[in-house]
Amino acid sequence: MGIFDFFKKGGTKKVVLVEDDVPLRSFMADRLLDNGIDVVETGDGLQALDLIQRHKPDCIVLDVMLPGKSGMQILEELRVKDKDTPVVVLTTLSGEGGLRLEASKHNAVFLNKADTALEIVIETVLRHAFRD
Amino acid sequence: MQPSHDPHGLLLQVVAHDLLSPLTAVKWQCELLERSNLDDAKRMEYVKNIEHATTLGISIAKNAHIAARMLSSSYAETLQPGNLSGVLRDSFTVLKDQFARHGIALKVDIEDVEVEQSFDHELVSFYAWLLGKYFLTCVPAGTKVEATGTRVEQYGVESLQISVSAPHIESKQKAEAFVKDSAQTALDQTFVFSHLVRLVAPRVRADVHCTAVDDVLIVETTFPAY
Q1: What band does B186 get if pLDDT is binned at 50, 70 and 90?
Q2: Which of A119, B53, B129, B192 pairs as cysteine with B22 (C-beta 3.0–4.6 A)?
Q3: B148 vs A87, A121, B108, B109, B202, CA distance in Å?
Q4: Is B202's pLDDT higher than 60?
Q5: Contact in structure between A84 and A129 (CB atoms under 8 Å)
């Protein structure tokens, strides 16, 4: 049994994935789909909150630099009504100290994509999607 | 993060950020390649993707180098005769991949207009890249951007006019923001590229003008043929 099989015991989970770089988004979506996750994806920051509201995901993955609306703006607006849905914030930006603090203030996990293996990103998302 | 008004510093931040995406893609593809349960077709797909990402990274680095030389006033033009329409057509076509990376379609239709004066081929390609990047920072995924080139007459002079346009965005605000001399937000990429477009246009002997018509944002660049 692989490490991710442990997570699958909890039934099908849904993740909303917001990342404007199409190849990076497809790597993450493919790996999540391989693990039986239902993935809803967009590259447009303006669509994100509407998708989250419609699909009520078990976890949200948010890139920081997005067209239309930044990931941090989306997180802030989300947390006004939804304090609980797990959020994983991703960035390639350095000077991340401020972003990491901002993310934790809004009860979100923070990862730097450029420094983190893809499997660690996926494992983090799965862990939070299956946390209950 | 506070808005920065220094185009030099912002350019460095924007380029660094832009390079990190294809480099992260290469890193993740290599991790995926190391998995043993891949068939040959998947393996070839990942290798091709690594090739695309590195080509993109090289293009970003080269253009960043030109941008830095422009901003530090150390760029010296090399004028040569050539097919201006062809150089612009090729440069916009190369951008299609980068647009596709963000889910944006780019249609290129530039007619051949004979231009007698010599021009700096590298700088004209760079200008096309700047225009493309400007639109990339303005338009959301799912948008169709068009780059067209036609023969026009401006002030009694036959000219090649390149028009890049995108519909269904906040075109009026974007047209107003095009001429601003300061960033509106932290890491304002739109400001960096609009600033560079306006800086480089006279260096390629062109007039540039940004306008909003209905809900369409249009940037027109006119190169005189003589």
Answers
A1: low
A2: B53
A3: 42, 41, 6, 5, 20
A4: yes
A5: no
**What's the rounded Cα separation, in Å, for the pair B129 and B88?**
9
What does the pLDDT average to over B34-62? Answer: 87
Which structure tokens are listed for B50? 């690594």
Cα distances from B28 to residues A47, A97, B76, B97, B137, in angstroms, run: 26, 24, 39, 19, 25
- Sheet order of strands, A38-42 included: A38-42, A14-18, A59-63, A87-91, A109-112
Kindly report the backbone phi and psi dihedral angles of residue B34, in degrees, each rounded to the nearest multiple of 5, phi listed first: -75, -15
**Amino acid letter, B192:** V
Q: Which residues of B sit within 8 Å Cβ distance of A?
A: 1, 16-17, 20-21, 23-25, 27-29, 31-32, 49, 53, 100-103, 137-142, 187
Phi first, then psi: give them for residue A117, nearest 5 degrees.
-60, 145
**CB-based contact (8 Å) between A10 and chain B?**
no
Interchain proximity B53–A67, CB inside 8 Å: no
Q: Is residue B184 packed enough to be buried (19+ CB in 10 Å), middle (13-18) or exposed (0-12)?
A: exposed
Give the Cα separation of B103 and A36 in Å (integer).
Answer: 25
Q: Which of B28, B100, B141 sits opposite A27 (nearest CB)?
A: B28
Chain A residues with CB inside 8 Å of B142's CB? Answer: 44
Q: Would you state the structure tokens that stand for residue B190, as one six-digit string?
A: 């739109």
Prediction pTM value: 0.77
Return the percentage of chain A with pLDDT > 90, whole number: 59
pLDDT in tens, B100-148: 888 889 999 999 888 777 899 999 999 999 999 899 888 877 889 999 9
Q: Determine, for residues A44 and B27 on separate chains, whether the beta-carbon distance falls below 8 Å.
A: no
Q: How much is the ipTM here? A: 0.82
DSSP letters spanning B166-225? EESS-HHHHHHHHT-SS-SSTT-HHHHHHHHHHHHGGGGT-EEEEEEETTEEEEEEEEE-
